[in-house]
Amino acid sequence: MKIDEKEIAKVAKLARLDLSEDQKAEFSKQLNDIIEYVEKIKELDTSEVKPADHIADLNNVTREDIVKESLKTSELEKIAPRFEKGHIVVPRIIE
Protein backbone atom coordinates (compact mmCIF):
# COMPACT_ATOMS: atom_id res chain seq x y z
CA MET A 1 0.00 0.00 0.00
CA LYS A 2 1.46 3.31 -1.06
CA ILE A 3 0.21 6.68 0.18
CA ASP A 4 0.69 9.42 -2.37
CA GLU A 5 0.36 13.19 -2.10
CA LYS A 6 -3.15 13.02 -3.57
CA GLU A 7 -4.32 10.94 -0.58
CA ILE A 8 -2.53 13.30 1.81
CA ALA A 9 -4.35 16.26 0.19
CA LYS A 10 -7.69 14.46 0.56
CA VAL A 11 -7.16 13.79 4.28
CA ALA A 12 -5.85 17.32 4.82
CA LYS A 13 -8.98 18.74 3.20
CA LEU A 14 -11.21 16.59 5.44
CA ALA A 15 -9.24 17.78 8.47
CA ARG A 16 -9.39 21.36 7.17
CA LEU A 17 -5.61 21.63 7.06
CA ASP A 18 -3.87 23.84 4.56
CA LEU A 19 -0.68 21.99 3.64
CA SER A 20 2.04 23.20 1.30
CA GLU A 21 3.31 20.93 -1.47
CA ASP A 22 6.50 20.34 0.56
CA GLN A 23 4.45 19.26 3.58
CA LYS A 24 2.35 16.89 1.48
CA ALA A 25 5.50 15.31 0.07
CA GLU A 26 7.07 15.01 3.52
CA PHE A 27 3.95 13.46 5.11
CA SER A 28 3.63 11.05 2.20
CA LYS A 29 7.24 9.94 2.69
CA GLN A 30 6.83 9.62 6.48
CA LEU A 31 3.62 7.57 6.24
CA ASN A 32 5.12 5.30 3.61
CA ASP A 33 8.17 4.76 5.84
CA ILE A 34 5.85 3.80 8.71
CA ILE A 35 3.91 1.37 6.52
CA GLU A 36 7.17 -0.16 5.28
CA TYR A 37 8.33 -0.64 8.87
CA VAL A 38 5.04 -2.29 9.86
CA GLU A 39 5.38 -4.66 6.90
CA LYS A 40 8.83 -5.68 8.21
CA ILE A 41 7.39 -6.29 11.69
CA LYS A 42 4.70 -8.54 10.16
CA GLU A 43 7.50 -10.89 9.05
CA LEU A 44 8.48 -11.63 12.67
CA ASP A 45 7.35 -14.81 14.39
CA THR A 46 5.20 -13.61 17.28
CA SER A 47 3.51 -16.91 18.05
CA GLU A 48 5.23 -17.15 21.45
CA VAL A 49 4.53 -13.53 22.44
CA LYS A 50 1.68 -12.93 24.86
CA PRO A 51 -0.68 -10.08 23.98
CA ALA A 52 -0.31 -7.02 26.18
CA ASP A 53 -2.22 -3.79 26.47
CA HIS A 54 0.71 -1.95 28.10
CA ILE A 55 4.46 -2.30 27.84
CA ALA A 56 4.92 -1.74 31.57
CA ASP A 57 3.07 -3.00 34.62
CA LEU A 58 0.45 -0.58 35.85
CA ASN A 59 0.13 0.10 39.55
CA ASN A 60 -2.20 2.55 41.18
CA VAL A 61 -0.24 5.10 43.11
CA THR A 62 -2.37 6.31 45.96
CA ARG A 63 -1.79 8.38 49.01
CA GLU A 64 -3.62 8.49 52.26
CA ASP A 65 -6.37 11.08 52.52
CA ILE A 66 -5.52 13.70 55.07
CA VAL A 67 -8.36 15.80 56.40
CA LYS A 68 -7.42 19.46 56.59
CA GLU A 69 -9.41 22.53 57.32
CA SER A 70 -10.44 24.34 54.14
CA LEU A 71 -10.70 28.05 53.53
CA LYS A 72 -13.50 29.88 55.25
CA THR A 73 -16.23 31.37 53.09
CA SER A 74 -15.13 34.89 54.03
CA GLU A 75 -11.61 34.13 52.74
CA LEU A 76 -12.96 32.72 49.48
CA GLU A 77 -15.12 35.77 49.01
CA LYS A 78 -11.99 37.96 49.10
CA ILE A 79 -10.10 36.03 46.40
CA ALA A 80 -12.95 35.02 44.06
CA PRO A 81 -13.58 37.32 41.08
CA ARG A 82 -17.34 37.03 41.70
CA PHE A 83 -19.07 35.59 44.74
CA GLU A 84 -22.83 35.38 45.37
CA LYS A 85 -24.91 33.64 48.04
CA GLY A 86 -21.98 31.66 49.40
CA HIS A 87 -20.78 30.43 45.98
CA ILE A 88 -18.11 31.37 43.46
CA VAL A 89 -19.82 32.47 40.23
CA VAL A 90 -18.16 31.47 36.96
CA PRO A 91 -19.13 32.31 33.37
CA ARG A 92 -21.70 29.99 31.79
CA ILE A 93 -20.14 27.78 29.13
CA ILE A 94 -23.14 25.65 28.16
CA GLU A 95 -26.24 27.28 26.79
What can be said about this structure in brief?
The chain is mainly alpha-helical.
Structural overview:
The chain has 95 residues and is mostly helical. The chain has a domain at 5-42: Histone, subunit A. The chain has 3 helices and 2 strands; from the N terminus they run H-H-H-E-E. It has helices at 5-14, 21-42, 73-79; strands spanning 83-84, 87-88. It has a two-stranded antiparallel sheet with strand order 1-2. A hairpin with a 2-residue loop joins strand 1 (83-84) and strand 2. Helix 1 (5-14) packs across helix 2. The longest helix has 22 residues, at 21-42. It is flat, with a radius of gyration of 27 Å. 1% of the residues are buried. The mean pLDDT is 90.
Write the layout of secondary structure elements.
Blueprint: H1 5-14, H2 21-42, H3 73-79, E1 83-84, E2 87-88
Antiparallel strand pairs: 1-2
Helix pairs in contact: 1-2
